[in-house]
Specification:
Residues 1-35 have low confidence and may be disordered. The protein has helices at 7-19, 36-55, 57-68, 70-81, 91-103, 162-181, 205-212, 264-275, 317-341, 369-380, 395-399, 427-445, and strands at 107-111, 117-121, 131-137, 151-153, 156-158, 190-195, 220-226, 233-238, 240-249, 253-254, 286-295, 301-302, 305-314, 350-359, 362-363, 386-390, 404-407, 413-414, 422-424. It is built from 12 helices and 19 strands. It is elongated. The chain binds zinc ion. The site of zinc ion has 7 residues, from helix 6.
């Protein structure tokens, strides 16, 4: 999960989309206020819906049950965090989660062919009718062997992956227990999902499966991703990305005896330097990163192969394409420059680009019910909604035109994607945040 930009950018993006569906990349050439009256009307309606949910006996009982359940939610946060789940190696965590969903008595608990784990909480509507999904991801960014033992200091828990996104997995279990304790029956079915492949290398494979091949793919009317902690977030814009591994190859040779031959590392170095000179707009937020390198033979050899991984992101498909084009020009120029700078008598430098990740750009309409209801749920909890764009599981439904937002699990947290990642599970703050997701979920599922 990557925190990204805020209200103004995303609102502009959504309004552009509202004016011209799918044209997230276009510059703002339309009046920016066109949809405001409609959005304002929908906001009032959403406020009323959420207030009715929060005033209901069922919600109050569910919140009271959640309040009593805080120690268990924290214990399950710790238990699940301590099961490693590197990209493509989520299975142990998935199986543990599946056992918990079964124990809670959800229907049709299963692990699908991609590794997503899910269970259905039936509503009062007909079987097979449109449903609401709430999902959290199993995987972390941390490689195998990372110490995932949770260290507790007061109400703070420290461990890689604790907030991104294991806390959310535990909160979803708390939601099921709370709804059961309060005997809340929603109209729509709710599908609780612990998905795989949200982080970098996974490239949203869990979501691609759920929405592309999974058995519920044609029934998903609304989608919540709970990812990270901040309960004030209403992320409805999808930041797109393109990621490459570039492999620079050359003839190689002895560092002393073959000195003077072309060196693929020089071409890679030029690429890194030039890429870091690219000017990108801050609005729409567009970024690039030269992030991982590898290769070489030995300290006394001209390398025959060296590789570099890069990540590019933007809220705008057009800006993403632009930075991608510039990057590819830089690679080509760096290769040409190295072939001109040193001897090619034993062979030339080449570069192979492999696309290793691609996430779509887009946004749920700002006036969509799920955006308005979630913003109303944030306000009703006494927080100020932060609308924005990010790169999360919601990118996939958003790209398919299915209403989706990414929300937080509540409480404070920080240092996501770092080994000193932490969350604060102080019960009052945690409960306030959990109430946001629960009220938005119930508003969308209908009670
Ligand atoms: Zn995440």
């Amino acid at each position: 999960m990557l925190r990204a930009s805020r209200l103004a950018i995303a609102a502009a993006l959504a309004l552009m989309l509202a004016a011209d569906a799918g044209a997230a990349s276009k510059p703002a050439d339309k009046p920016m206020t066109a949809d405001r009256p409609m959005a304002a009307g929908k906001a009032m309606q959403a406020d009323r819906t959420v207030q009715a949910v929060r005033a209901s006996a069922g919600f109050k009982a569910a919140l009271a049950a959640l309040e009593k359940d805080q120690d268990r939610i924290t214990a399950e946060t710790i238990e699940l965090t301590e099961i490693p789940a590197p990209p493509f190696k989520e299975k142990a965590k998935g199986l543990a989660y599946m056992a918990k969903l079964k124990a809670l008595g959800l229907d049709d608990v299963e692990m699908d062919a991609e590794g997503n784990v899910m269970g259905l909480r039936r509503g009062t509507g007909p079987a097979g009718a449109p449903l609401v999904v709430i999902a959290a991801h199993q995987d972390t960014v941390f490689p195998e062997g990372t110490n995932v033992k949770v260290r507790r200091e007061g109400t703070k828990l420290y461990a890689p992956g604790v907030g991104d996104d294991t806390r959310s997995l535990a909160v979803l279990l708390g939601y099921v227990r709370a709804l059961d304790a309060a005997k809340v029956r929603t109209k729509k079915d709710i599908l609780f999902v612990a998905d795989v492949g949200e982080e970098g290398p996974g490239d949203l494979r869990g979501m691609r499966y759920l929405f592309g091949k999974g058995k519920y793919k044609d029934r998903i009317a609304a989608f919540f991703s709970m990812d990270g902690t901040g309960a004030d977030r209403v992320t409805y814009g999808a930041v797109g990305s393109r990621r490459y591994r570039v492999t620079f190859k050359g003839p190689g040779g002895h560092s002393y005896g073959a000195f003077g031959l072309v060196n693929p590392m020089a071409a890679m170095g030029t690429t890194v330097v030039e890429m870091n000179r690219i000017k990108v707009p801050s609005q729409p937020k567009t970024t690039y990163m030269t992030s991982v390198v590898g290769g070489g033979t030995s300290v006394n050899s001209i390398p025959d192969s060296i590789w570099l991984e890069v990540d590019m992101r933007s809220e705008s498909a057009e800006e993403l394409a632009k930075v991608d084009r510039r990057f590819q020009e830089i690679v080509k120029a760096a290769v040409d420059a190295e072939n001109a700078a040193r001897s090619t008598r034993a062979g030339k430098i080449t570069a192979e680009l492999k696309l290793i990740g691609e996430r779509p750009t887009g946004a749920t309409r700002e006036d969509a019910e799920i955006v308005q209801v979630t913003a109303a749920a944030v306000k009703a909890a006494g927080l100020t909604p932060v609308l924005g764009a990010s790169s999360t599981d919601s990118n996939i439904p958003i790209s398919l035109g299915i209403p989706a937002v990414t929300i937080g699990s509540g409480g404070e947290g920080g240092r996501a994607h770092a080994v000193d990642e932490w969350i604060d599970v102080a019960p009052a703050e945690a409960l306030k945040g959990q109430g946001v997701g629960l009220s938005a979920l119930l508003a969308m599922a209908g009670t």
